[in-house]
Design a protein that fits this description.
The chain has helices at about 1-10, 15-40. The relative contact order is 0.05. It contains two helices and no strands. The protein is mainly alpha-helical and about 90 residues long.
């Protein structure tokens, strides 16, 4: 097939090469801008089986309350305040 196209193109080797590249780019552009968009609605690749509505609308548990806590220069309750409580001792009873 490619040999037939090469023989049909007129001129010396350099002009045949330039025309072949132009034909290849033109064919790719036709597919890219016309054929693939026309076929896209008929392809099953965008049909999802999982309902993803509402994903990402709420923060996961535990993230909203401590935004920015623990960053450099911030202190979290019990860290870096210098006051540590000793655990209560029990009788063992």
């Amino acid at each position: 097939m490619y040999g037939l196209i090469w023989r049909i193109l007129p001129g010396p080797w350099a002009s045949k090469f330039i025309m072949a590249v132009g034909l290849l780019a033109g064919g790719a552009a036709l597919l890219w801008f016309f054929a693939f968009p026309a076929l896209s609605p008929h392809m099953p690749f965008n049909d999802g089986a999982v309902d993803t509505t509402g994903i990402g609308s709420e923060a996961p548990q535990g993230e909203g309350a401590s935004e920015g806590a623990g960053a450099e220069g911030d202190t979290v309750e019990g860290e870096g305040s210098g006051t540590e409580e000793a655990p209560e001792e029990s009788d063992g009873a």
